């Protein structure tokens, strides 16, 4: 059964970490997804920029969402590798992360993700690999 945007929104409400950060599900379709996060003062590091870990969280989170979009909830994706390149700093505002799975095998999925600001500027890009539960 296909995993929909509404399925992910409901599931998102049960995730305390996502709720703490204010992550919002924009859409999920097939093996692609988009999420957003409001950047507030508590996510800014000492130099006045978004902490790089937030970019990592966004890419990891949106990739996991895209995995569920391709496999459904039972995939229960677990990150096995995540590589993020930081391209430009950002500050207060809303950030958007998009992802697309580029390989979906029986037990491993690989995808690319990007983080952009409200003006569409590319802030970070990354690739992640995920272990998915084998079909039973």
TrEMBL record:
Q: What class of enzyme is it?
A: hydrolase
Q: Which residues form the Thioesterase domain?
A: 47-123
According to its UniProt record, the EC number is 3.1.2.20
Molecular function, one GO term: fatty acyl-CoA hydrolase activity
Q: Look up the domain of life of the source.
A: Bacteria
Q: Which UniProt keywords apply?
A: Hydrolase
Assigned protein family: Belongs to the YigI thioesterase family.
Name this protein carries in UniProt: Medium/long-chain acyl-CoA thioesterase YigI
- What organism is listed for this UniProt entry? Vreelandella aquamarina
């Amino acid at each position: 059964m296909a995993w929909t945007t509404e399925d992910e929104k409901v599931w998102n409400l049960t995730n305390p970490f996502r709720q703490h950060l204010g992550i919002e599900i924009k859409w999920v379709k097939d093996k692609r997804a988009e999420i957003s996060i409001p950047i507030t003062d508590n996510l800014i590091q000492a130099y006045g920029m978004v902490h790089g870990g937030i970019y990592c969280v966004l890419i990891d989170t949106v990739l996991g969402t895209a995995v569920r979009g391709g496999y459904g909830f039972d995939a229960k994706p677990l990150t096995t590798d995540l590589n993020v390149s930081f391209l430009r700093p950002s500050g207060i505002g809303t950030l958007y992360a998009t992802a697309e799975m580029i390989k979906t095998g029986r037990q491993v999925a690989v995808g690319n993700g990007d983080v952009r600001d409200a003006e569409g500027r590319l802030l970070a890009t990354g690739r992640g690999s995920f272990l998915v539960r084998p079909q039973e």
